[in-house]
Amino acid sequence: SQELEQSPQSLIVQEGKNLTINCTSSKTLYGLYWYKQKYGEGLIFLMMLQKGGEEKSHEKITAKLDEKKQQSSLHITASQPSHAGIYLCGARGLLMNYGGSQGNLIFGKGTKLSVKP
Amino acid sequence: NAGVTQTPKFQVLKTGQSMTLQCAQDMNHEYMSWYRQDPGMGLRLIHYSVGAGITDQGEVPNGYNVSRSTTEDFPLRLLSAAPSQTSVYFCASSKGLASYNEQFFGPGTRLTVL
Predict the structure, then answer these.
(1) Is the preceding peptide bond at B8 cis, omega within 30 degrees of 0?
(2) By the CB < 8 Å criterion, does B43 face chain A?
(3) What is the pLDDT along chain A (117 residues), one digit of tens a residue?
(4) CA nearest to B93 within chain A
(5) CB pairs below 8 Å between A and B: how many?
(6) What separation in angstroms does the CA of B114 have from each of A57, A68, B65, B105?
(7) Partner residue opposite B98 with nearest CB, options A43, A96, A102
(8) Mutate to test the interface with B, among A32, A43, A58 (most CBs of B within 10 A)
C-alpha cells in the first residue's frame, strides 16, 4: 500500500524565519494535497498539485511537486504565529476495488509547526 | 452551500453503547468517506462510498458500519463502542475520484469511549 512520509514530525521556528516541510511518497503520486489543521479543528485545504514540476503559492506558502522524486515540499516564507498548526499532505492512493490512478486520499502523519513570537 | 456538515461535534459513550455519527454534504458529491484521526497515526480511512448504494471498507473498518441511501448523507455507525474507538472522526466528500478533485472535510466529531 502507498505510504506518505512527512518530515520533520515537528518544527519550532522563530517568527520571521523560513521553513520547509517535506512529503515523500512510496509510490507514484497522482495529485498531492496540502491541508492545515489547527488543534481541535477540521482540515483546511491549502493547495493541490497535479503535475510534476508544478508550483503553487498562496500568500506566504509555496508548494512544489517533484514527480520523479515522488516528493512534495511546502515552504513558508517569513513565518507568523498564524502559520502554527499541523500540516498534512495527502495523495490519491489506490482504492481496493476501484484501482487505477484514482482513489481515496492517503495522508502523512503530519508536521506540527510552532512559531515563537 | 453548507459544505460538509457533521453532528455531533462532541460525544461521550460508555463501552458497549451504540451511536451514529452523521455526515451530510450539499455539493452533490458522489464520493464520500470517513476517516479517524489519532495521535501519531495521522488520518486513516474507515469506509468510503463512490455513490448512493455503494460502500466499501477502507484501512480500519472493524467496529464500524456505513450505508449510503442518498447522495447527500453518509452516516457512520458504531454498533458496540470500545475505548479503542476514542478518536476524532472526519467525514469528507469530493466530486469524484480523479486526482484533480479537491476533497472537502467536515469539522470533525470528537468521540470519547469510557
Answers:
(1) yes
(2) yes
(3) 668 999 999 999 999 999 999 999 888 776 788 999 987 778 888 988 887 788 999 889 999 998 888 899 999 999 999 999 999 998 876 544 444 334 567 889 999 999 999
(4) A104
(5) 66
(6) 44, 47, 20, 27
(7) A102
(8) A43
